[in-house]
Amino acid sequence: MKGYNTKLTKAGREGLSLRTTFPAAIKNQLGLNEGDELNWELDKINDEWVIIVKPIKNK
Question: What parts of the chain have a pLDDT lower than 50?
Answer without folding.
Answer: none
